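Help wanted!
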Amino acid sequence: MKIINTNDANFKEEFENILARAKTDIKEVSSIVTSIIDEIVENGNSALKKHIEKFDKWEVKEDSQLQISKDDMKKAYENIDEKLKEALHIAYNRIKTYHEKQLPKSWIDFEKNGTILGQKVTPVDRAGLYIPGGKAAYPSSLLMNAIPAIVAGVEEIVVCTPTPNNEVNELLLAACHICGIEKAYKVGGASAVAAMAYGTETIPKVDVITGPGNIFVATAKKLVFGEVHIDMIAGPSEIGILADSSAKPKYLAIDLLSQAEHDEMASSIMITIDEEVAKQTSIEVENYLQTLSREEIARKSIEDRGAIIVASSMDEAIELMNEIAPEHLEVMTTNAFELLPKIKHAGAIFLGENTPEPIGDYIAGPNHTLPTGSTAKFYSPLNVENFLKKSSIINFSKQAIDELGEACALLADTEGLTAHAKSVRVRLEDN
Amino acid sequence: MKIINTNDANFKEEFENILARAKTDIKEVSSIVTSIIDEIVENGNSALKKHIEKFDKWEVKEDSQLQISKDDMKKAYENIDEKLKEALHIAYNRIKTYHEKQLPKSWIDFEKNGTILGQKVTPVDRAGLYIPGGKAAYPSSLLMNAIPAIVAGVEEIVVCTPTPNNEVNELLLAACHICGIEKAYKVGGASAVAAMAYGTETIPKVDVITGPGNIFVATAKKLVFGEVHIDMIAGPSEIGILADSSAKPKYLAIDLLSQAEHDEMASSIMITIDEEVAKQTSIEVENYLQTLSREEIARKSIEDRGAIIVASSMDEAIELMNEIAPEHLEVMTTNAFELLPKIKHAGAIFLGENTPEPIGDYIAGPNHTLPTGSTAKFYSPLNVENFLKKSSIINFSKQAIDELGEACALLADTEGLTAHAKSVRVRLEDN
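Answered by r_m:
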């Protein structure tokens, strides 16, 4: 694995390349995705069926075949291995407990003059979850997207997942059963996003669409934003690791590889202040690579997009990491907690040597749907707020409008809005 | 003003029309805005200058002329009328107090097995506020956009506003002074949004862009979403009023007009259960219309997009209003508070006869930047969270990974991710 040093003459350039690589350019597929969306808006189910035949290679004879039955979910759940069932329940419960702590309350506040101000928190009516399917079916994605919606109190949750050759992953079905999903559909890609954004004869129009997906799904989410809300536009997975001399190279290596194995486009970057740790980790990466079932993918990712950076101080290391704003950040130092105040941008932060990133993918509790490509500078992990929205509450008493009304009308006057001013003054005249 | 009844044979159709009218179609301007954004990305300041010459009709001779000086802000503040100054300070303080109540705290939580989970809340580094300028310069918009960013703790706030003929509204300058704005630029429209999203030689790249604007600004915000975060895509202003027989028609009428005067495309809809209130309000609207400085705009809005609906029950009225999901909702009934549980979708809710909507525009405290066109079904009012983002915190102890690691590795196995599983098991082997 490539090792570079912040003192290298061309370091700045190398680092700019690392940052640039993380960006996803959705322009290239925009026109294809736009026409897919237009087709769904115009032709609804019949367009969906056409896309399923083309991409998933099976023929939908009746609309009812689009839906996955609750019975199939139940059967799948009953058939899975007990150990796995237990693991899914542990994950479900821990994820639920964590997200319950995120739930904001409506609040209200009173002033002496009789003014009442507040904020009402309400779940959206309908949420649409996009869950990748086929070979890369991730039941954990279903848990991570459905549970925040359930905790938020969303009444109707819609799931869409592609089913190549009309096959649904059994574990995904089992996870749907555990989450009590009522409405799941065998629709994938940009078509699924369009169907949930605009509705078809079978698939309900939702208010919010969340969930991971390839560049077509990400682009569709961007294009329907405004018609519905979305969580974020996410690209390939990333890990950043901050390490000092106390970090164990074999842990660092396998953790770097845990993201590299996702995708050739995944990015694994370690910044360390210890040159020896850098060297040893690079050696361990090569050792582990040869043992992986997804060696080819991981190797390409590490070669094209991986890097170990040797920094001259932990402050410099953190500054660079804040620029990267990685999806996952592991802090493998003796004083991991004490570095938190300086860490500004990261989707999820994993502290200490017993917290490998995969712990957060499955079982810790926090969401694994996280911002990528430096967007942790402004996006948050998927959370219950993605399924809620707020309304301001304002109640003025006679006394309150008497006290504040004229200042309000004056400001309206200066903006040339006479009806605004008058609507206040007509009350003042009556009081 | 047109009165329709939910019992009318064609009511459903009429109501669908009302809902459809509220939608903004940004498709028509997308290609123009795309090329404006591309120009700014390619040519930076020189493109900005070209656009200013074209749209704002003045020549920018040097880059430094793009910036509004802090001195000009101070002078403007010193020159305004004392009453108005006081009104601005009252507004500033009340808006600040309200938004401080929205500020979420980082939190952390401990488990017996040594697990630590939490959520770190961090402000974005840079926020960009778009403030409309020229004839429709609204100093209140500056307060409403800047204060949540200030409360969130954003270190660098950038303001862009168009300056036709190189003139800046004095009150907007004064409001900038009150908010302590350091970086304000004379750039408007889609160019300003593009400049803040991608940065130019003079204008810093920001992380979040908020603020109102015309269809070009709204479209630009949608197009740069993903490169930066945005608050929402907003269209013309709206008011919905729920009224029973206790409501005063003259209040209802002037409140309907307070939105109609904003824009010919603004929408003012009242739903009442009292036919007499409907009739009297319609008469009062006509009376007031003749007194307004913006009569022409307000009349066109009321005629084309206004409606009074007579419903057969308050439940039916609320159900229809939830479908509309208005930007502003006034509840003018005897039991306004008791209706709150049933009201699901509205940007801001104004309760009782002493709370006309303009109170919320200027002085009450809650934000006046609100979702329009039914998007209150999923967007929230502008708030401090728009300027914050979260990072999950995860720390596992030896005991925690011993207890939960195997369940985690098992789930990774089923998803075919061997490096994920190995990264956990290599720790278990060591423990």
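OP: Thanks! One thing I noticed: Chain A touches chain B through 124 residues (CB under 8 Å).
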